[in-house]
Request: fold
Amino acid sequence: MFDVMDLSWFILRRCADNGTPISNLQLQKILYFLQKMSLKNGNRSLFEDDIQAWQYGPVVPKVYKNFSFYSAMKIIPTDFDPMPKLEVTLSKELLQEIDKRATQNPWSLVQESHQVGGAWDQIFNDGYGNREVIPLELIQRC
Reply:
């Protein structure tokens, strides 16, 4: 299991190094899709932080707060930004997922995470579940 901030910096650096820097919104969706893929394929959580159902989709609050000052701008890590404290080793499949998602339009990521009947949709429930935790079991099942 990874520290979610280490994983986030790893994703941001990988995307920027590949020439596809991402925004905080995209980072949130990539974290969600990676968690979902890991749960479905190996029945294992990548990180322990909760994912909540926010208006624009699944969000890891700690990560959101850390990168919110970027607003909708692309996040390009510098030498002054933290390097992941631990070696982040992901499967080839998860690395491919990061690379694929980094090239997607941010609003198509939002749309995909908002699928009717999906985990976010069931918890958000037209706003009644705003900022409620999306259970891992539901993410895995949907």
About this structure: The two ends are 21 Å apart (CA to CA).
